[in-house]
Design brief:
- The structure holds 2 protein chains of 2 kinds.
- Chain A is of the alpha/beta class.
- In chain A, 48% of the residues lie in helices and 18% in strands.
- Chain A contains 6 helices and 5 strands; from the N terminus they run βαβαβααβαβα.
- Chain A has a 5-stranded parallel beta sheet, sandwiched between helices.
- By secondary structure, chain B is of the alpha+beta class.
- In chain B, the strands form 3 sheets. A 5-stranded antiparallel beta sheet of chain B has the order 2-1-5-4-3, with helices on both faces. In chain B, strands 7-9-10-12-11 form a 5-stranded mixed beta sheet, covered by helices on one side.
- The chains are: A alpha/beta, B alpha+beta.
- At the A-B interface, helix 1 of A face helix 11 and helix 12 of B.
């Protein structure tokens, strides 16, 4: 089997993080976890290789998802993470726009998708990215 | 009015009437003064003449005197002269003598007859006294004396001079003889001659001496008479002057009297007549006439005066006639007036009765007015009270934008002085640029409908404005003003915002457990075969946790709703708090262990009485407080203590957590408020923000309180639940 695609899940709610960890693993991804913005950035620094996909929650303590996005945008290394998807329960349009403006590829509201669908969306994003870059 | 000019009669003006006086005065002056001056002049000239003539006369007399002396001396010297050629000539002396006596005689004649008369020219002769003209020489004696005496003397002098001359000639003759004899025969004959000469000389000398004595006498007498006559002249002159003065004085007196009398006669008398006529006229005698028949200017004046009097009297008579007529008219009018007055009085009496009736009516009306005013005032007061009690800012404005009425709420809202007089313009300016009140008012009034404006920001408040025009209820539909309502909707907005935030959070909260339940269930269904025991257990546990969380959230909502509607039933009974706390501690131990926090129950020394409250709700509150403490504490621990005080049992929960900032402390027990700081960066509390709010409501419903005793950022917070104790 090819090396598993690394996905980095940043989520403070243990219920949620557990759930997504399970579904991605079950779907055959390698999973890394962080439970708040600060921890996320710290782990990213040390991570090698960098994850392909990042599932980023917005509402988190210490540093929220949008702030993380911003920090990543200004960081040379982190800019390269291809797919960043926001996975949140904030359903506001402005929030979505803000996130996308800061570099998120997708903005998913948790309650609208079951776990399998979330994984499917992630895969979709990766495929899109590969397609864009190969051509 | 014309002045009767007396040109018909003969006119003899006053100036002519006074003419005699001017003329006589002049004449008088000329004559008297002239003659006096003339006389004075004559006296003066006579005096001058005397002086003119006397000087040479006296001088010649002196000369002859000195000549005589000289002659005699010369003669004396003859005896000593030897040269016949040197013998003096006597004839010269003869001439001198005769000249002087002649001159004297001439002088005398001048004194007597004046220097210009023929008598003067034929001076050497005795003349008659009868032919004399008295030339102002009063003293005849003087002249007389002078004449007689002086001519006698001159005669004697002549004799003596003749004597001298004869003897002198003799002497000379004899001397010559002597001299002649001397040469030949200077003997007795010559001696005789010498002797004869000597004798002749002596004789001559006698004569000379006599002559000289007489001459001196004559000279002195002449000087005397000159002096006397000069003095006489002076006296005459004096007298003449005196006469002049006297005449002048008398003349002046007469003249003055004459002037006074004539002025009196010609000027003053007529004038007095006129003056008295004027006075009479002034006193009111309108037919005054003055008669002056002097045929001069005064008569003219009198006539003019008479004419004037006549005119004035005519005019006055005319006036009086007019006045009389007028008075008659007025009398008539007065009579009419009197009748009218009588009629009016009658009317007035009728009026009086009417008035009285009116007065009664008025009183009634006034009373009604007073009552009505009282009613209106009460209404007004009620209205004002109502308006002032409104929590809305209320303005009634006039069409000209002045403010008719404003209430307390508005004053507070704008933060102005109650007494300040304002216009709508002022208020508009105060409200700043974000909201143009005046403009809105204008639009609203034009549209004649009620306008509502939201989203007004002023002075850190959110406001809502309602503008309504006030129209009269009649057909005219005139605007008499408008009403502005200003509502402070900050609280509501905050509440709305909080509500929006709450829904955001709440939705989030609800979605999380729902998603977890659904997700885990999905995964279990899809991957049942792949999953191991551990994983399965884990998932089911997650579903369980999520469900519990969901139930909690839903319960919070329900509780809040019911609490607010007052629909919660409390089953209050005595509670053993010690036991309850122990139970709660036991249940929560795991959580604190997971977070590596300590949890301690500190019991007080004194026995704590039982609380009187609902068991479940009390447990709920304690769980909420404890739950918050755990959630907001990362290190350290939590201490629960139980204490008793007057009438209450206190459950105190102290943590070493984040603490709450001073600003947020006041917000803690509010609806939807999280105890965290920012809304996005929230803690992993699954709270809806209703926890403390519900706890507070529950505690208060049970007769107790919840308080934040103290809290410091970074150090921790202390909450206290107080419940009433069982009344023993």
């Amino acid at each position: 089997m090819a090396k598993e695609i690394k996905v980095f899940i940043v989520e403070d709610d243990s219920l949620m993080s557990d759930m997504y960890k399970n579904i991605f693993e079950l779907s055959g991804y390698e999973v890394e976890m962080a439970s708040d913005g600060i921890e996320a950035l710290e782990k990213l620094e040390k991570m090698d290789p960098l994850p392909v996909v990042m599932m980023l929650d917005i509402m988190m303590p210490k540093l929220n998802g949008l702030e993380v996005l911003e920090k990543m945008k200004n960081n040379e290394k982190f800019k390269k993470i291809p797919v960043v998807i926001c996975l949140t329960n904030l359903a506001g349009k402005e929030d979505a726009e803000k996130a996308l403006a800061l570099g998120a590829v997708k903005y998913l509201v948790k309650s609208e998708y079951n776990p399998k669908e979330v994984v499917a969306k992630a895969k979709e994003a990766i495929d899109e990215y590969l397609e864009k870059n190969s051509s | 009015m014309t002045i009767n000019s007396p040109q018909n009669k003969s006119f003899f003006g006053i100036q002519w009437k006074l003419a005699p006086f001017y003329i006589s005065l002049t004449f008088f002056v000329i004559c008297i003064v002239g003659t006096q001056i003339f006389e004075l002049n004559r006296i003066r000239s006579s005096a001058d003449n005397i002086t003119k003539t006397n000087v040479p006369v006296v001088r010649s007399l002196q000369e002859s005197l000195s000549a005589a002396v000289e002659g005699q001396t010369a003669l004396e010297s003859v005896l000593d002269i030897d040269d016949p050629k040197k013998i003096p000539d006597v004839s010269g002396y003869v001439r001198v003598f005769s000249e002087s006596t002649d001159r004297f005689n001439m002088f005398m004649a001048a004194l007597m007859w004046g220097s210009e008369t023929d008598a003067f020219k034929n001076s050497s002769g005795g003349k008659n006294y009868d032919q004399w003209i008295k030339l102002g020489l009063r003293d005849e004696l003087v002249v007389d004396g002078v004449m007689k005496g002086d001519s006698q003397i001159t005669g004697e002098i002549n004799l003596y001079y003749t004597g001298f001359v004869n003897n002198a000639e003799d002497a000379i003759k004899h001397r010559l003889n002597f001299l002649n004899l001397k040469k030949e025969n200077r003997n007795i004959a010559s001696e005789q001659e010498k002797q004869k000469s000597k004798i002749s000389i002596d004789k001559a000398r006698e004569f000379t001496e006599l002559a000289n004595i007489k001459m001196r006498e004559l000279i002195s007498r002449t000087n005397d008479s000159i002096e006397k006559s000069t003095r006489a002249l002076d006296e005459t002159e004096q007298e003449a002057r005196r006469r002049l003065v006297l005449i002048s004085v008398i003349g002046s007196i007469f003249f003055s009297l004459g002037t006074i009398l004539s002025v009196r006669q010609f000027i003053l008398n007529p004038l007095y007549k006129l003056v008295s006529a004027v006075e009479e006229f002034g006193k009111g005698k309108l037919d005054t006439v003055t008669h002056i028949n002097t045929n001069d200017e005064l008569e003219t004046l009198a006539n003019a005066f008479n004419g004037m009097v006549k005119s004035i009297s005519q005019y006055t008579i005319g006036l009086e006639a007019k006045i009389k007529d007028r008075t008659q008219e007025l009398d008539k009018k007065l009579v009419d007036l009197e009748e009218t007055k009588k009629a009016m009085i009658n009317l007035l009496e009728d009026d009086k009765i009417l008035e009285e009736k009116l007065a009664v009516q008025m009183k009634n009306v006034e009373q009604q007015v007073v009552e009505r005013t009282k009613e209106l005032n009460e209404e007004k007061a009620r209205l004002l009270a109502s308006i002032n009690s409104l929590s809305l800012g209320f303005i009634i404005a006039n069409v000209d934008d002045t403010i008719f009425l404003k209430n307390h709420a508005l004053v507070d809202l704008l933060g102005i002085n109650e007494d300040k007089e304002l216009t709508v313009g002022d208020v508009s300016k105060m409200m700043g640029e974000s909201f143009d009140l005046k403009d809105q008012v204008k639009k609203c009034l034009e549209g004649e409908r009620v306008c509502e404006i939201n989203e007004i920001f002023f002075n850190k408040k959110s406001l809502r404005a309602i503008i309504a025009p006030i129209l009269l209820a009649d057909e005219s539909k005139n605007k008499i003003g408008y009403v502005i309502l200003l509502e402070d909707i900050t609280e509501r907005k905050v509440t709305e915002r909080s509500r929006e935030e709450f829904f955001a959070v709440a939705s989030h909260e609800l979605r999380t457990p729902l998603t977890a339940i659904r997700g885990n269930a999905d995964m279990m269904l899809d991957y049942w075969a792949k999953l191991d025991e551990e994983k399965k257990k884990n998932m089911i546990h997650n579903i369980h946790t999520a469900s519990k969380s969901l139930i909690g959230i839903v319960n919070d909502f329900l509780d809040m709703s019911r609490l607010e509607q007052g629909k919660i039933v409390f089953d209050s009974k005595p509670i053993d708090l010690v036991r309850m706390i122990n139970q709660v501690v036991q249940e929560t131990e795991q959580l604190t262990k997971n977070k590596k926090l300590s949890l301690e129950f500190k019991l007080s020394d004194k026995a704590v009485p039982e609380a009187f409250a609902d068991v479940e709700r009390t447990r709920q509150i304690i769980n909420n407080l404890l739950g918050n403490a755990i959630n907001y504490t990362e290190k350290g621990g939590i201490t629960i203590s139980l204490q008793a005080r007057e009438g209450f049992a206190d459950v105190i929960i102290e943590d070493t957590g984040k603490g709450v900032s001073k600003e947020n402390q006041s917000l803690l027990f509010r609806k939807f408020q999280q105890a965290g700081e920012k809304i996005l960066t929230r803690d992993s509390s699954k709270g809806t923000g209703l926890g403390l709010y519900i706890s507070k409501l529950l505690a208060e419903e049970m007769g107790g309180t919840i308080e934040l005793v103290k809290s410091d950022l970074g150090e921790g917070s202390t909450f206290r639940l107080s419940l009433p104790v069982v009344v023993a």
